[in-house]
Amino acid sequence: MVDDDESVRMALSSSLRSASWNVIDYASAHHLLDDTRRSTLKLVVADIQMPGMDGFALLESIKRWKRPIPVIFVTAYVTEDVRERAKNNGAAGFFSKPVDDAGLLARISELLKK
Fold this sequence. Notes:
Rossmann fold; 3 strands
């Protein structure tokens, strides 16, 4: 879970943990990319609007990994342009904040076939 807003990060991480998912929290895209555990990740849920590297730049970086993983975006700034850009760039999901926890959990389960 990557989000610069700690309250959002903690709430979504708690929801994911309650569904028995292992979760690593990151306050920024750079924290994720610098983490040696990133090779163990199976999926990323990331905010789009973050200082430094935004969600789209993070997605592009992950797409260059030896083993790319799905990226689901969450954002408070939903526009048709942002939604279309996410789809065209290969995001595995797109949710507006506040996030529909049940929908997010269903999408993660679908992607990871749990």
